[in-house]
Design goal:
This protein has a 7-stranded parallel sheet with strand order 3-4-2-1-8-9-10. Strands 6-5-7 form a 3-stranded antiparallel sheet. The protein is built from 12 helices and 10 strands. The radius of gyration is 21 Å and the shape is globular. Helix 4 runs antiparallel to helix 5. It folds into 2 domains: 237 residues, no CATH class; 74 residues, no CATH class. By secondary structure, the chain is an alpha/beta fold. Helix content is 38%, strand content 13%. Strand 8, helix 11 and strand 9 form a beta-alpha-beta unit.
Amino acid sequence: MELDAFDASLGQWPQLPFHCTGLLLGNGASRAVWRNFAYDSLFERAQKVRNKPLGQTDLALFKSMATENFEQVLSALNTTTRVNAALAISASAPLNRYYAIKEALIHAMRSVHIPFRLLPAATSLSIAEHLRQYDTVYSSNYDLLLSWAVEQSPEGFDDLFDVDLGFDVRRTHTMGTRVLHLHGGLHLIRQADGTTRKRNAVGSALLDGFAINQPGEVPLFVNEGRVEDKSRAIRQSDYLSWCLAQLASHQGPLCLFGHSLGEQDRHLTEAIAQAGVRQLAISVFPLSDAWVVSQKQYFTRLFPGAELAFFDATSHPLSAPGFNVPVPKPLVKRKR
């Protein structure tokens, strides 16, 4: 289709011409529940939080590694600490930076994440009910909304972590809906030996205890950054590389909900193309006629030859009006 032939019409989710076997969730899915998830960069946020933001020494470490990815910097500091200890060299400097960066990360994440107590159980149950309709749910979000939804209603789901909470690429057969976190998540840990495990916590403890873990362990999630940063972090993780390979071999129609698939997510676009997905259902938020047309043009260029069904994002079950939780206004201390 000629790119100038598009109009601003959008279909409705219930009337899609095909059934999707997979769902790829982006940040828009999380923003439908909590508007504070609309932050641009966790790295930028960690520099501006009120309590213990990233300092100049911390920023110099990120710059020296040419990354904005917390997992990479924390892992490097962990390795340096262990090497220094083995060589009887003082490890206090890298260890101090490790804890300082970790603390800034904790405060940044808590400043944007919805508290568990504010998330209605009915919302989590509704999310879980919809997700069960797919063979595989892929998410590039690292927040806890999916984890809390599956926790509320676990029947029919499999996150591929075994009884000891570890991930083993040799044991990935499942009969239920697979939930794969393409960029990791706050509930996942990269252990000192490079393997991945799920944190042994539920409910509010998943957020409250985020990044408070054993020495040598770091939170496994790929925050905002260049596609080169993301690809490097994914290659270094057994779990993340396996999840991306699953997207690259997806069978059947795929739904993209709340995902822009921008340049920073080129690895995801390439994986979908590698899978040879022929039918894509793509959500578009109807901001304006011009916006809808531009989105149609963009995705048509992104997936030439595929059958694309564009639908109104507000008609999707994960965008139900009742899902949006109001963000409380910050308390303002009165001057005495």
